[in-house]
Amino acid sequence: MAPTSGGQYHWVSMLAPAKIRKGLSYVAGWLTLAGWQASVGSGAYLTGTLVQGMLILTQPSYVPQNWHGTLLYWAVVIFCIIINIAAGWLLPKFEGGLLILHILGFFAVLIPLLTLGPKGDTKEVFTTFYNLGEWPTQGLSFCIGIMGSVFAFVGGDGAIHMSEEIQNAALVVPRSIMTGIMINGSLGFGMILTVLYRAGDIDAALAENPAFPILAIFKHATNSTAGAAVLASLLFCLATSATVGLLASSSRVFWAFSRDKGLPGWRTLSKVSERTSIPVNSVVATGLIASILALVNIGSSTAFNGIISVSIAGLFSSYLLVAGLLLYRRCTGGIVPASSISTDISTEFESTKVVWGPWRIPGILGIANNVFACTYLSFVLFFSFWPSFAAVSPQNMNWSILVTGFVAIFSGLYYLIWAKKTYHGPIVEVEPRYAHETRA
User: Fold this and answer.
1) 354-355 and 335-336 beta bridge pairing
2) Which positions are tagged coiled coil (predicted)?
3) What is the pTM of this model?
4) I want to staple 140 with a disulfide (CB 3.0 to 4.6 A). Which of 96, 135, 338, 429 is the partner?
């Protein structure tokens, strides 16, 4: 319907009632931006600390330090910035090459685990449930523990924020998203089953490498430290490429929100390089903010994880806003087929209608899909604020509710105090189809 770099906040502006449109879209923009910014930090942190896990694997005497992880984090961020701003053609070529490594790497990890790893018991794999958080019921433990799997799907809207750099984005972007989910969903499910059947003693793997037990599983399966290091290197390459993509999409949200005058310093952040057509300032700003946040990790990894935990809450709350408004519009007849719009769009009534795009689920199936989306998102958002352990302490507390609440309250207050003077909703540029039309 509207493939734009702004994504969620743009759609909220389209779908929300007129009275709350501007303010709600502004808050949605900040939640989206905070979620994406935290995702960049999460990707860089996981990639950098993966190197520390590899050091533990190959050098058992190594004692990991927070500042080591921060330096590795910065190295990953710098690499991602270079890939994103070097040239307009480099990012798609880099991602295309990594797609090949992604597919080949899947088999490079799967085959050794299947052929060399210890054989697991089917009953144990499918009927053993852990409650390491010591929650009152196994069901509650499941609802809280599933957030680890939810995190793997954070950033599913990444391709959307590249829409303004893609031809025929209204079809290409949704096809790309669904293709990615089908490919990675199938490969991921196969890999999960393989790891579960060939994991061996999970408790021993956790004790040997608490941060990355998968590396200990590699070692026990291959019975070789070198072999495990090679498999871990594949994970490192893929994690790095994922962070490159996270930075690219995050910077486009930065750029789009700045173009719409929603951020401080929007004049600078909205500039696009004439040489590469890349929003270099936004890319650098995204990397710089992520790097500054990493300083927190030196003092306290708990505080740092509290900040980046907004990646789930921030993004999923923005998804919920859009899904809820889409359901509202659909049920009230607020979205019409393109064929029902007259060729003369000079009237205000016609020009403000929301029109279906070429990709949708029609009728009752579409409503059911939207209802499921809202239900699932509400479930995820609710449990994303729960701590991992029933016995809560400052060290294991989930601070995402504090960070998410701060972002929502700050953005609302900032809008009321200042931004409402400059932010008037997404700026839409329409190529005229007829002689009497103008650019809006």
Assistant:
1) parallel
2) none
3) 0.89
4) 135
